[in-house]
Amino acid sequence: MTVDIMWKKLPIKPIEVSLNKVLRCGQTFRWKNVNNTWSFTTQDRIVLLKQFEDHIQYSWIMLEGQPKDVPHSQLEKETTSFIEDYFNLEVNLESLYKNWIKADLLYKKKKTPFQKFPGIRILRQDPWETLISFICSSNNNVKRISKMCDSLVNEFGEYINEYEGIKYYSFPNFQSLAKPGVESKLRDLGFGYRAKYIYQTALKFLDNEKYPDITIEKLNDLRLQDYETAHDFLLQLTGVGPKVADCICLMALDKHDIVPIDTHVYQIAVRDYKFKGSKTMNKQVYHQIRVFFKEIFGPYAGWAQSVLFTSDLGDLNNGINKVEVIKGEEETIKVENKRGILRTL
């Protein structure tokens, strides 16, 4: 299927958004890099992004069968609004980096990660997708999480359209994941014990009689609530512990100061910032490290932590979701890079 692509520009420099970094550092798992074009689906379109030195080009492909009488200007406005919201573009990242560098140099005499890894910002993702994605993240790595999210959309999502010979699907809603047989199917797809977590969480959103306080509306409204309220709500859900809840709070619910603590972040705190505490991770130490980083980096400490985490990974050339499309006269060949980076969550 051939689709005419019309590209538009947004004046965003890599210092504010580095697509190659921010879309591969373990925040989001469904973006595909197809011949240096990043692609992703919302509920009604494929969003396409390309990075240049002084701007980002963007375009979109609408849901197949979508009425064609919708004005192009409206579709452009909707896509622009999605990009601005998704990438938290109202936040001046360059200004934050300057403050973080000053704070960081109090601890380090050498070049800091904030000078070496520009353009990494926290995304503002859909709360439901973020919830399910990070349930998948338990004791997992980025490559496998990405494959699981691909399996979810391909098996349970709605078909959107095709780009470069690849079929794209929306992320499945809770109704789709609460149907009989879903848990068994997820196990067949390699989700292991996470299959039960996803299915039971979806059932809680479906059963309003038994769980009247667990609804998508209340999940989305957590953006307007304080951290404690949001965190407590998330802990009701099967497969969500304190770390996963913190990831969702930071990456979907506007809790910018929250620092999720895993092995990487704990090691960074001890090795680079001389945090002194128990060598065993427990609830008290978890809280102490969160407070410790907030005292250093301020109200956007969660954003700063993402840069430190990415720096600790070192090599982002992991090939996750990178697809080269080679077109011939008779067929399209998709070649996926098989390398991945372990991230224990």
UniProtKB/TrEMBL annotation:
<dbReference type="GO" id="GO:0005634">
    <property type="term" value="C:nucleus"/>
</dbReference>
<keyword id="KW-0378">Hydrolase</keyword>
<dbReference type="InterPro" id="IPR003265">
    <property type="entry name" value="HhH-GPD_domain"/>
</dbReference>
<protein>
    <recommendedName>
        <fullName>N-glycosylase/DNA lyase</fullName>
        <ecNumber>4.2.99.18</ecNumber>
    </recommendedName>
</protein>
<dbReference type="Pfam" id="PF00730">
    <property type="entry name" value="HhH-GPD"/>
</dbReference>
<keyword id="KW-0539">Nucleus</keyword>
<dbReference type="Pfam" id="PF07934">
    <property type="entry name" value="OGG_N"/>
</dbReference>
<keyword id="KW-0456">Lyase</keyword>
<keyword id="KW-0326">Glycosidase</keyword>
<keyword id="KW-0227">DNA damage</keyword>
<comment type="function">
    <text>DNA repair enzyme that incises DNA at 8-oxoG residues. Excises 7,8-dihydro-8-oxoguanine and 2,6-diamino-4-hydroxy-5-N-methylformamidopyrimidine (FAPY) from damaged DNA. Has a beta-lyase activity that nicks DNA 3' to the lesion.</text>
</comment>
<comment type="similarity">
    <text>Belongs to the type-1 OGG1 family.</text>
</comment>
<dbReference type="InterPro" id="IPR011257">
    <property type="entry name" value="DNA_glycosylase"/>
</dbReference>
<keyword id="KW-0511">Multifunctional enzyme</keyword>
<dbReference type="GO" id="GO:0140078">
    <property type="term" value="F:class I DNA-(apurinic or apyrimidinic site) endonuclease activity"/>
</dbReference>
<dbReference type="GO" id="GO:0034039">
    <property type="term" value="F:8-oxo-7,8-dihydroguanine DNA N-glycosylase activity"/>
</dbReference>
<keyword id="KW-0234">DNA repair</keyword>
<dbReference type="InterPro" id="IPR023170">
    <property type="entry name" value="HhH_base_excis_C"/>
</dbReference>
<dbReference type="GO" id="GO:0006285">
    <property type="term" value="P:base-excision repair, AP site formation"/>
</dbReference>
<dbReference type="InterPro" id="IPR012904">
    <property type="entry name" value="OGG_N"/>
</dbReference>
<dbReference type="InterPro" id="IPR052054">
    <property type="entry name" value="Oxidative_DNA_repair_enzyme"/>
</dbReference>
<dbReference type="GO" id="GO:0003684">
    <property type="term" value="F:damaged DNA binding"/>
</dbReference>
<feature type="domain" description="HhH-GPD">
    <location>
        <begin position="136"/>
        <end position="313"/>
    </location>
</feature>
<dbReference type="GO" id="GO:0006289">
    <property type="term" value="P:nucleotide-excision repair"/>
</dbReference>
